[in-house]
Write a structure and sequence with these properties.
The chain is α+β, with helices and mostly antiparallel strands. A hairpin with a 5-residue loop joins strand 2 and strand 3.
Length: 177
């Protein structure tokens, strides 16, 4: 039983005698493995610092409104009625909405056709091409025996001006007996 006490000392001594203590074959493999490699890995690109951008929607034009973008760039004059003309010499029939005016007849003098328009106050007025009707800056563009055509400038919900063509037709009146 005494020999069991010597066993922990004898086993490490026996195992140390099995090897020469050098790892020359592993060292040679590590040296040879790097010889077949060629080239270099490029360093990663330099990181640019982040540039902050503050978005102010109020300073940028509406991207869905082409007319407003053209006006902000200075292109075109934009469609607008002549406000100065209306202040200086507003015609009487511009005081009434177009829907309240009625064409009741026409007449011709010196090759000029006039339309007879009845206002809501039952007064009769004679108009020709170039006169104005209604509250939407309506300019008369054509007068015939049965209708008055005019071009109006109306403002939409975006405060942009648009051109609208309207027609005032001759009103049929029944003759009472």
């Amino acid at each position: 039983m005494k020999w069991f006490r010597l066993l922990p000392l004898v086993i490490p001594l026996a195992l140390s005698a099995c090897g020469d203590g050098t790892y020359s074959d592993l060292d040679q493999f590590i040296r040879d493995s790097g010889k077949s490699l060629h080239g270099k890995v490029a360093p990663p690109p330099a990181i640019k610092p982040y540039e902050y951008y503050s978005y102010n929607a109020f300073d940028i034009p509406d991207p869905f409104n082409a007319l407003r973008i053209r006006l902000m760039k200075g292109e075109g004059g934009g469609l607008q009625p002549d406000f100065k003309r209306r202040e200086e010499r507003k015609e009487f029939l511009e005081n009434f909405p177009l829907e309240s005016l009625k064409m009741v007849g026409s007449l011709q003098q010196n090759k000029v056709i006039y339309a007879l328009i009845r206002a809501p106050d039952n007064t009769l007025h004679r108009v020709k091409v170039g006169d104005y009707l209604g509250q939407d800056f309506g300019l008369i563009t054509a007068v015939s025996e049965s209708e008055v055509r005019l071009k109006e400038n109306v403002q939409d919900s975006n405060s942009d001006w648009a051109e609208r063509v309207s027609t005032l037709m001759l009103e049929d009146q029944e003759v009472s007996k």
